[in-house]
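haha ok so turns out i had the wrong file open the whole time. this is the CORRECT one, sorry everyone. sequence first:
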Amino acid sequence: MQKAGGIIGLIAGIFGIIAAIVTLMVGGLGSAFKAENASLAIGLGWGGMLFSFLCIIFGAVAMSSGSKTPGALLTLCAIAGAILGGTFVAVFMVLALVGGILATIGAKKKIVTTT
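then structure:
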């Protein structure tokens, strides 16, 4: 279940980057036509780009890690990306949130035996 959560987080991060690029393009067009809140859209696009990259990184680490930390960090990045990335990025951050929860729940504690 941990590998599945990592793969879901990785896919959500890739789609989040595409959504952030679209948000940046909309903000750029708004800025070209001197729209009111065009700089806000550009800021949301960069926020979505940052947290989507972090979701890709933590999704890849969560696939091979034995601890719950990468899954928890993936969950936190998904929440922050949904808040700071705009509406279009938030759709894919919900998918990253599911992946982070799966990666956190699926991590098993390794039993250390001493001889």
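The helical segments are 2-32, 38-64, 69-84, 87-106.
again sry for the mixup
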